[in-house]
Amino acid sequence: MKTISVGDLRQNPTAALDAVEHGETYSVTRHRREIARLVPPPARRRVTPDDLFAVIARTPVDAEWATQIAIERSDLDDERDPWRA
Protein backbone atom coordinates (compact mmCIF):
# COMPACT_ATOMS: atom_id res chain seq x y z
CA MET A 1 0.00 0.00 0.00
CA LYS A 2 1.29 3.41 -0.94
CA THR A 3 0.95 6.53 1.18
CA ILE A 4 -0.05 9.97 -0.09
CA SER A 5 -0.64 13.19 1.83
CA VAL A 6 -3.78 15.24 1.45
CA GLY A 7 -1.70 18.05 -0.09
CA ASP A 8 -0.12 15.75 -2.68
CA LEU A 9 -3.49 14.26 -3.49
CA ARG A 10 -4.97 17.73 -3.92
CA GLN A 11 -2.14 18.80 -6.24
CA ASN A 12 -2.18 15.72 -8.44
CA PRO A 13 -5.27 13.54 -7.95
CA THR A 14 -5.09 12.08 -11.47
CA ALA A 15 -1.90 10.06 -10.88
CA ALA A 16 -3.20 8.56 -7.64
CA LEU A 17 -6.61 7.78 -9.09
CA ASP A 18 -5.04 6.18 -12.17
CA ALA A 19 -2.99 3.93 -9.87
CA VAL A 20 -6.09 3.02 -7.86
CA GLU A 21 -7.91 2.24 -11.09
CA HIS A 22 -5.14 -0.27 -11.86
CA GLY A 23 -5.43 -2.00 -8.47
CA GLU A 24 -3.18 0.06 -6.17
CA THR A 25 -4.33 1.03 -2.67
CA TYR A 26 -3.37 4.36 -1.11
CA SER A 27 -3.33 5.46 2.50
CA VAL A 28 -4.24 9.15 2.62
CA THR A 29 -2.52 11.01 5.46
CA ARG A 30 -2.86 14.37 7.16
CA HIS A 31 -0.02 15.36 9.51
CA ARG A 32 1.43 11.82 9.10
CA ARG A 33 -1.77 10.23 10.39
CA GLU A 34 -3.95 8.04 8.19
CA ILE A 35 -7.34 9.59 7.63
CA ALA A 36 -8.61 7.61 4.63
CA ARG A 37 -7.86 4.90 2.11
CA LEU A 38 -8.31 4.92 -1.61
CA VAL A 39 -9.07 1.40 -2.75
CA PRO A 40 -10.18 0.00 -6.08
CA PRO A 41 -13.78 -1.22 -6.25
CA PRO A 42 -14.35 -4.96 -5.94
CA ALA A 43 -14.16 -6.87 -9.18
CA ARG A 44 -17.56 -7.25 -10.78
CA ARG A 45 -18.57 -10.57 -12.23
CA ARG A 46 -20.67 -10.49 -15.35
CA VAL A 47 -23.87 -12.50 -15.20
CA THR A 48 -24.50 -14.42 -18.39
CA PRO A 49 -27.87 -15.74 -19.57
CA ASP A 50 -26.64 -19.25 -18.75
CA ASP A 51 -25.96 -18.13 -15.14
CA LEU A 52 -29.50 -16.76 -14.88
CA PHE A 53 -31.06 -19.93 -16.27
CA ALA A 54 -29.00 -22.03 -13.83
CA VAL A 55 -30.30 -20.02 -10.87
CA ILE A 56 -33.87 -20.31 -12.11
CA ALA A 57 -33.46 -24.07 -12.58
CA ARG A 58 -32.24 -24.41 -8.96
CA THR A 59 -35.14 -22.38 -7.56
CA PRO A 60 -37.67 -24.67 -5.90
CA VAL A 61 -41.21 -24.57 -7.26
CA ASP A 62 -44.00 -24.17 -4.73
CA ALA A 63 -47.46 -25.22 -5.97
CA GLU A 64 -49.15 -23.16 -3.25
CA TRP A 65 -47.34 -20.04 -4.44
CA ALA A 66 -48.43 -20.64 -8.06
CA THR A 67 -52.05 -21.04 -6.91
CA GLN A 68 -51.88 -17.81 -4.91
CA ILE A 69 -50.50 -15.93 -7.93
CA ALA A 70 -53.37 -17.24 -10.08
CA ILE A 71 -55.90 -16.02 -7.49
CA GLU A 72 -54.27 -12.59 -7.32
CA ARG A 73 -54.27 -12.30 -11.10
CA SER A 74 -57.94 -13.23 -11.32
CA ASP A 75 -58.74 -10.36 -8.93
CA LEU A 76 -57.25 -7.98 -11.48
CA ASP A 77 -59.09 -9.35 -14.51
CA ASP A 78 -62.31 -7.40 -14.07
CA GLU A 79 -63.03 -4.51 -16.39
CA ARG A 80 -63.77 -1.95 -13.68
CA ASP A 81 -61.97 1.38 -13.72
CA PRO A 82 -60.01 1.46 -10.45
CA TRP A 83 -60.20 5.26 -10.35
CA ARG A 84 -63.99 5.38 -10.26
CA ALA A 85 -66.06 4.39 -7.26
Topology overview:
Elements: E1 2-5, H1 6-11, H2 13-21, E2 26-30, E3 33-38, H3 49-58, H4 63-75
Parallel strand pairs: 1-2
Antiparallel strand pairs: 2-3
Characteristics of this structure?
85 residues, alpha+beta, YefM-like fold, three-stranded mixed sheet, 4 helices, 18% strand
Task: Report on this structure.
With 85 residues, this protein is α+β, with helices and mostly antiparallel strands. The chain has a domain at 2-38: 3-Layer(aba) Sandwich (YefM-like fold), CATH 3.40.1620. It contains 4 helices and 3 strands. The protein has helices at residues 6-11, 13-21, 49-58, 63-75; strands spanning 2-5, 26-30, 33-38. The chain has a 3-stranded mixed sheet with strand order 1-2-3. The longest helix is centred in the last third of the chain and has 13 residues, at 63-75. The N and C termini lie far apart (67 Å). The relative contact order is 0.11. The mean pLDDT is 88.
Using only C-alpha atoms, the radius of gyration works out to 27 Å
N-end to C-end Cα span: 67 Å
Structural class: alpha+beta
Biggest β-sheet: strands ordered side by side in the sheet: 1-2-3
Return the CATH topology of the domain at 2-38: YefM-like fold
Largest sheet: 3 strands, mixed
- Principal-axis shape: elongated
Unreliable parts: none
Helices and strands, in order, run as EHHEEHH
Helix amount: 40-55%
Q: Per DSSP, what share of the residues sits in E-state strands of 2 or more residues?
A: 15-25%
Total strands: the figure is: 3
CATH architecture of the domain at 2-38: 3-Layer(aba) Sandwich
Helix segment count?
4
Mean pLDDT rating: 88
CATH class assignment of the domain at 2-38: Alpha Beta
